[in-house]
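Please decode residue identities from the backbone states below.
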């Protein structure tokens, strides 16, 4: 009987060891509740809203503002408002004021003629609808399923630093990174937002945007017990190439109805990874503004080894972007129990404890090593495509960082 107990114990230990040493499935992904019907793309009718774009011109030449009249695939048809002499402005809100909304509706509805000839452009010809600001208000875990898949318990904000890149662009990654995608709907306002009454009165423009994250940095810096601590998110999501913007700037007549029904989809190569309606947001854009304006004094937000406030001067500035947050389906998964136990065991077996490294840090780094080895995250050569119902497309090729 004694030998039987010893054999049973040995078998259990061996089985546990084999189980612990089995790597995670490199093909595993977060589930998402996608729609059965393929995404239907287009633009709003002129009576539902206006769609503008800024055409990329020569580096020394002026940009041209386009009034988009049709979208087919990655090609837009548009009236060149600048070439037609209707405006000299390049700021979208200035164009709306300069030309007038009713005039723009009439132009968009008119048949192509000699007075307002229609031009064809691709998304690669367009500049980012996000504008040129380098600091924005981002939102975290603002969709229910994404909140669940990350283990978060509430919506939070953080400052995102970096100028937006155009709708056809690249993003670089290095060997240490775990590069992840997020698709979002973003908005800008025709005025500074200091009070909620400013938001209510403001004209609002919406556009498709992406949010690339370095999950290695985020995992190392985040406070897992308090996502709103101010650490991790700005460093992991800021910098060059981390903020691709769609090229279509949509000014809907009824912005709440527009947001409610707008569909957002992410593909990696040909595989759909995210599929959600913007109306699934936990906090609406109005509620996000209220939340941000109630948090203008704290300097808890860490970025580039400096402490920052969420916004400057107590307001969301006219040229800043407010981001919605993303839905479920991102690549990142928190470490599971097997990964934690395995990391703790290797901490002892490898003698890492003799180096003075803290157990938590050792387990974390082992988890990151496993995730890098799995090649689950974005790799050089991958094509990330963000699509939407009425805001166009973003196409991003992942490339290896030069250094």
């Amino acid at each position: 009987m004694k030998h039987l107990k010893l054999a049973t114990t040995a078998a259990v230990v061996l089985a546990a060891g084999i189980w612990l040493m089995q790597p995670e499935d490199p093909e595993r992904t977060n589930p998402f509740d996608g729609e059965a019907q393929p995404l239907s793309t287009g633009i709003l009718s002129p009576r539902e809203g206006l769609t503008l774009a800024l055409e990329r011109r020569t580096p020394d030449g002026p940009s041209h503002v386009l009034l988009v009249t049709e979208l087919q695939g990655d090609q837009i048809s548009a009236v060149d408002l600048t070439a037609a002499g209707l405006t000299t402005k390049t700021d979208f809100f200035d164009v709306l004021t300069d030309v007038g909304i009713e005039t723009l509706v009439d132009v968009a509805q008119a048949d192509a003629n000699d007075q307002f000839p229609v031009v064809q452009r691709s998304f690669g010809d367009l500049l980012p609808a996000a504008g040129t600001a380098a600091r924005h208000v981002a939102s975290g875990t603002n969709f229910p399923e994404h909140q669940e898949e990350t283990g978060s318990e509430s919506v939070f904000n953080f400052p995102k630093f970096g100028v937006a890149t155009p709708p056809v662009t690249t993003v670089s990654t290095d060997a240490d990174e775990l590069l992840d995608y997020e698709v979002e709907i973003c908005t800008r306002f025709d005025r500074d937002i200091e009070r909620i009454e400013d938001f209510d009165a403001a004209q609002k423009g919406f556009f498709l945007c992406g949010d690339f994250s370095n999950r290695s940095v985020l995992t190392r810096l985040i406070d897992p017990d308090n996502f709103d601590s101010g650490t991790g998110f700005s460093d992991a999501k800021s910098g060059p190439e981390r903020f691709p913007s769609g090229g279509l700037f949509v000014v809907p007549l009824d912005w709440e109805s527009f947001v409610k029904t707008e569909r957002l989809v992410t593909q990696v190569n040909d595989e759909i990874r995210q599929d959600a309606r913007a109306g699934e947001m936990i906090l609406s854009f109005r509620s996000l503004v209220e939340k941000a304006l109630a948090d203008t004094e704290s300097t808890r937000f860490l970025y580039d080894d400096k402490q920052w406030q969420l916004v400057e001067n107590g307001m969301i500035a006219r040229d800043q972007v407010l981001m919605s947050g993303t839905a479920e389906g991102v690549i990142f998964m928190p470490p599971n129990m097997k990964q934690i136990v395995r990391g703790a065991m290797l901490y002892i077996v490898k003698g890492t404890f003799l180096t003075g490294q803290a157990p938590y840090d050792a387990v974390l780094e082992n988890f990151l090593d496993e995730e890098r080895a799995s090649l689950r995250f974005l790799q050089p050569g991958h094509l990330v495509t963000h699509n939407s119902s009425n805001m166009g497309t973003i196409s991003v090729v992942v490339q290896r960082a030069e250094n």
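Observation: The mean pLDDT is 91.
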